[in-house]
């Protein structure tokens, strides 16, 4: 059969279409087959164009990311073909050497590809988890900041669940059994802080807090932290504390910082010489001069330095003078200058004045020396000579001296030697303390010192330049270094060397000081301590109290922050008995932990009770007021608690049984001890207890006994003639009694109704009179009774008729 073309089919279709009758029910074709064909081709062209557009958009997207689409396509095709070739590796026979070698070659390539693939997946996995950990650390930091407050202010009021307060004098073994949440460094510091506080409170000879902390660092055997504490103590604690009379002395502090750097460098020189004793040829008397000579023999810098042709054992005379200054021995430096006076007679005079004047030259001498330096010394080939002149004369502080000053400690020492603390205006050739601080913290900053990688180094830089507050705030940013930052802050605070702010300020605040050229950073010591103690205050409240004691002189809203923090701690932990003590059966008070800090803690207990009362924890407040000896407040709160519990039942309201037992115990103890209280409070208290007894009998269906108690209370009239008298008397009762008139009337009417079923006709008549008196009494009360109460009373009275 011959193949039929598309055009023939089209022609036949048209003939068939023309032969259709128009009277059929089939719908008419609106388009011819040629029209349908054209429409189909148009749709096909549009689809192809859309696919091309998608490819174009994809190419543009990849090109914006720097991807070459044609090259990527070629690489994918070649990779696919390579994969297929590798998958189709054929087994070679041992006799086919060429094939065997080719197979080994391809296998090696395939192994390398698989190994690289495995390494890539492993690296991706590590990067993935590292990103998750980093994200989580940032989230934890944000959570911590939110706890402090979005504005950086302390949030002192913390919500305490009501259920916690109800267990306040319960067994505390569950708290004591909790494992400590404190880390090793926190525990080590807490022991030393406790020892310091105990010595301070016992009025014994107190070892400085810094020394306590240093001993703790030595015990932990961490070299970097031990060195840090040695630095802090050398600058602050080891000096005569009488020098610090509540005001920071920058001149003295910078002097101590310079001495610390000189002392540590001398130790470095000794260790270097002893480690290379044979090359150093250390001998003779143990003096600074012999130490410097030996050190210069092993120092690679000193061999090429010439001092105007003068040398000592192959070393520059100026180098010897420089290293004598570097290790803090000014007298030896002066003796060397005297020995070689013929080199520069004027310098011998200048250095002697520098030594005698406390590392200071007069203005005229300094001007002369600076002129001599510019004329001759600046162009000298001896780098040590230039450095010595810059140190003695305190000029050219912008010179780096990179050949000599290679470490951060050397740089700091050099700049500290050049600081002129007494200048009152900035000079182009004078280095002020403000300029030095800006130089290390602003010009260089954290990036230059790689602060995130080596935070202790940057902390040392800030601390040695008297930027104590900024140094502590920087160190506190690192979670692992927060314990060190807190205790350094406490050491400075105890030595009156820390500028602190109010409790509502941010952690670090910078203000301009009108009395100096530099701005002052103020640290919120309270916020720092609170940030630290919140780690363990719930599991170790006794340790947290020691840290709060450092805030005893910080005022907040007219109150010692120590007391405020204690109140918050007691409220949050609920350990009232352990922290505040408790009352014994004989009325004496068993001491709590607060007695360690307060000779008479009643005022503190009262403040805790006041806060507890404001939070609505009335049962806890009752026991706290009772502990502080405020019996009137005890009865006042008990009346409030009994008022809402009078008409309830113990079975369905456990709080009623608890309040009733507490009230009865206190009532018995007050009676035994003849405790004096306000007559009105005492009268209301006992009347409420009587009403409690009445409703207990009423709910227990002991109607006769309940009726007898009600008669003895004489709160309700039994005859219409008594209504006016009882209504006037009822007005004199306290609000706690008046609030219970509705349930009392209903209970009384119910008792009358039940009693009438078992009474004689004469008794029933008297019961009806009593019921009528109750109805009239309810109507005469100047209080609006609930509508259902009035209707129930009327219904019960009708039942008596």
Write up what this structure looks like:
The chain has 801 residues and is mostly helical. Helix content is 64%, strand content 3%. It is built from 37 helices and eight strands. The strands form four sheets. A two-stranded antiparallel ribbon has the order 1-2. Strands 3-4 form a two-stranded antiparallel sheet. The chain has a two-stranded antiparallel sheet with strand order 5-6. Helix 14 packs antiparallel against helix 15, helix 20 (455-464) packs antiparallel against helix 21 and helix 22 (482-494) packs across helix 23. The longest helix is centred in the first third of the chain and has 52 residues, at 97-148. Mean pLDDT is 81; it is low at 83-89, 149-179, 238-245 and 302-309.
Poorly predicted runs are: 83-89, 149-179, 238-245, 302-309
The whole-number mean of residue pLDDT values reads 81
Strand order of the largest sheet: 1-2
Oligomer: single chain
User: Could you give the count of β-strands?
Assistant: 8
Strand content: under 5%
What general form does the structure show? flat
Distance between the termini: 119 Å
Number of helices: 37
Main beta sheet strand tally, sense and closure:
2 strands, antiparallel
> Helical content, roughly?
55-70%
The helix/strand class is: mainly alpha
Rg over C-alpha atoms, rounded to the nearest angstrom: 46 Å
Main features:
about 800 residues; mainly alpha; two-stranded antiparallel ribbon; about 5% strand
